[in-house]
Write a structure and sequence with these properties.
The complex is a heterodimer of chains A (about 500) and B (about 180). With about 500 residues, chain A is an alpha+beta fold. Chain A has six helices and 26 strands. In chain A, strand 5 and strand 6 form a beta hairpin. The mean pLDDT of chain B is about 80. The longest helix of chain B is centred in the N-terminal third of the chain and has 27 residues. The chains are: A alpha+beta (about 500), B mainly alpha (about 180).
């Protein structure tokens, strides 16, 4: 059967009649070669689209005017320019662009002002019915928020990110972009941190503490008074921070899932038709695409694992390290197994120690003899403000070795490796310490406590001269887990949440 | 028997495969729904599902088959949501198209470079029409209004341009 050029053109133009679609179906199903030809056509057109978008992104002068155009469009709630592969620009010849820009400036100024008057100093509302919006307890917008052309956030960190953004780059209201690979950390104008995991599409709203997560995953971290109130809007839910850490996963077909690692959040439907709910630590909620709450969803942290150095307090990480947000009781559930990566959990965050805490190592150096007599052994005094992290080597299927290095932003105060110290710490801070209760079938221990015949499989740790880097070599069997607790000085910029 | 991958290696493998195949998945979705915006949204959904369910992928099987199975389900949901069953393909046809996808990812970079050069050879009006079609997702009827042309003239123009581009790219790749 011959190709059907008219039907193909109509189909890919979105204007095919039912009869043309039927004719194409018959043609495709008549011969596998026809199906392959059809796929080739689809592929070719997709490549044309990609190439045109790329050309227009990279060849359109002058850049600053396009920025203005994007921002004016955003102010008018018009379709926004996208900044990566799906980017859309005007595509107009230059004279039309300039003439259109002049007209758009006037139109957008009037419309933007009108919207501002109608909406008040709030965010743009891709999913919001403003007439029924419940105001959050701590509304993100402040009195100085206006839909003007100004940066509302900064791209602060990226990790294997596949896009053309660069750390330090200012991000403006109305910008929408897709992260296809890796992680990116955005800091809002108010200091809230949002870690975005690919694949994700986000859009910056018109105040400096709000992000629209169209699809993808986001971890929100609000540790300073000014950052409190971060709003994350998805198609199905508004999530407003009340001073906390939380994860949001949004999918166009699957709905939105929110879990609270610490602190509290408020959730409400974007149309404001459901009552505002408050969620606390280790609570989760899931709503479907109809914004209906689904069955009770378990607390879930594995969804939100990130590279270690994407997280506050850790400046750099190398080797086999993954970071997970977790609550203390989560570690008892025999989770987070990996033959290749240790898991790092943040535990204390600026907490003040209520009593003395024994630690094994404090001074710079390498420690490879875990006999109690060889352990340095000292104490952190009561009243010390500290962050702490738990490093856990827990093989999934086989005996495994793990090498890695963590560089913290502040100096290490002490390293705890002895099981009895772990239990004492649990007793001292039962609400904050990660529990060591093992599953019946597993043995948990800090590190090897005896000199092994084969030194090549003996655990060791090393504290660097500046006391900011911890290197480790851990050997763990499938039947047991190695654990190390590291205390570091509390950064002065991080406030104790006391939650 | 191959050693089973641990979680992080498995995730990395799936990410790499997705990187290679995402254009093909998008092309399949475009073929299935005829609308660039919807195809893009569906691609995002598939990407999220791939990332979320990466452990379900069996590395012994072709990645594209697994990804297209996810894509096919998304298209069926899309059909139900849009209630446009007359304008999108039947499940059997979607199956035929999935089966027609090549086993190896296409060499996109060379084709894209060739396309870029060929697009540069087009007349302004043709390139503008393609921009309106592919970047702004306008249908020929809307392009006709924008350009002050008849609908038939725009359809004919796009057909000729597609044909010319295909020929140009084929020749460029043959020379390379």
């Amino acid at each position: 059967m011959k190709p059907l050029p008219n039907e193909l053109e109509a189909f890919f133009s979105g204007e095919a009649s039912p009869q043309q679609v039927q004719a194409l179906e018959d043609w495709i199903n008549a011969d596998p070669d026809n199906a392959r030809a059809f796929i080739a056509q689809a592929h070719f057109r997709e490549l044309i689209g990609q190439t045109i978008r790329h050309r227009n992104l990279t060849q359109q002068p002058p850049g600053h005017l396009l920025h203005e155009l994007a921002e004016l469009e955003a102010a008018a709630s018009a379709p926004t320019i996208e900044w990566v592969s799906q980017s859309r620009s005007t595509g107009l010849p230059h004279w039309q662009l300039w003439a259109g820009l002049a007209a758009l400036v006037m139109f957008a100024a009037v419309l933007g002002l009108t919207l501002y008057v109608v909406q008040g100093p709030g965010v743009s509302d891709p999913y919001r019915n403003t007439t029924a919006q419940h105001p959050p307890t701590n509304p993100a917008p402040g009195p100085k928020d206006t839909p003007t052309r100004r940066p509302v956030a900064t791209l602060t960190v990226e990790h294997n990110a596949a896009w053309d953004r660069r750390p330090g780059e200012e991000l403006h209201a109305g910008q929408r972009f897709t992260l296809t690979k890796g992680f990116a950390e955005i800091t809002t104008g108010r200091g809230a941190v949002a870690i975005i995991e690919a694949p994700a599409t986000i859009e910056l709203l018109q105040n400096d503490n709000a992000i629209c997560l169209h699809t993808g995953k986001l971890i929100g971290i609000c540790e300073t008074p000014s950052s409190k109130g971060l709003l994350v809007r998805t198609p199905h839910m508004d999530v407003t921070d009340l001073g906390t850490r939380f994860g949001v996963a949004s999918g166009s077909m699957s709905g939105t899932f929110v879990t609270v690692f610490d602190g509290q959040i408020e959730v409400a439907s974007p149309d404001g038709l459901t009552p505002v709910r408050t969620l606390g630590r280790a609570e989760s909620i899931a709503v479907d695409t109809a914004r209906q709450e689904t069955e009770s969803h378990p607390f879930d942290t594995t969804t939100f694992s990130t590279p270690a150095d994407m997280n506050p307090g850790i400046a750099m990480a190398s080797g086999s390290v993954r970071f997970l947000f977790v609550t203390p009781d989560e570690l008892t559930q025999n989770q987070y197994r990996s033959d290749s990566h240790v898991s790092v959990f943040e535990e204390l965050r600026g907490d003040v120690l209520p009593g003395d805490v024994p630690v094994s190592f404090v001074s710079p150096g390498k420690y490879d003899r875990m006999l109690p007599d060889n352990i340095e052994g000292t104490r952190l005094e009561a009243g010390t403000a500290t962050h702490s992290y738990v490093i856990r080597a827990r093989p999934g299927t086989q005996d495994s070795t793990y090498r890695g290095e963590l560089t913290f932003e502040t100096p290490i105060l002490g390293v705890m490796i002895l099981a009895e110290d772990w239990h004492a710490f649990e007793t001292l801070m039962p609400d904050r310490a990660i529990s060591l209760d093992p599953m019946p079938s597993e043995l948990l221990e800090g590190m090897d406590q005896e000199v092994l015949p084969d030194a090549s499989v003996a655990d060791w740790v090393r504290i660097s001269e500046d006391r900011k880097t911890l290197s480790f070599y851990l050997y763990a069997s499938a039947a047991k887990a190695d654990l190390i607790r590291v205390f570091v000085e509390a950064p002065v910029t991080h406030e104790p949440l006391g939650l | 028997m191959a050693k089973p991958l641990d979680q992080s290696d498995h995730r990395a493998l799936v990410a790499e495969q997705w990187h290679q195949w995402q254009t093909s998945v998008r092309a399949y979705l475009l073929a299935a729904v005829q609308n660039y915006h919807d195809a893009e949204d569906l691609t995002q959904q598939v990407a999220v599902a791939v990332a979320r369910d990466f452990e379900k992928y069996d590395p012994q099987t072709p990645f594209i088959r697994w990804a297209l199975a996810i894509a096919r389900n998304r298209v069926l949901n899309y059909r139900r949501a849009k209630a446009t069953s007359k304008l999108v393909f039947s499940p059997d046809t979607l199956e035929s198209l999935a089966g027609a996808m090549p086993e190896q990812p296409p060499a996109q970079s060379e084709t894209r470079q060739a396309l870029d050069r060929c697009l540069g050879k087009l007349q302004d009006r043709s390139r503008h029409a393609l921009t309106l079609r592919y970047e702004q997702d306008l249908k020929p009827r809307e392009i006709a209004l924008s350009l002050g042309m008849s609908h038939t003239a725009v359809t004919s123009l796009l057909h000729r341009v597609h044909k010319a581009l295909a020929k140009c790219v084929k020749e460029a790749l043959a020379k390379a």
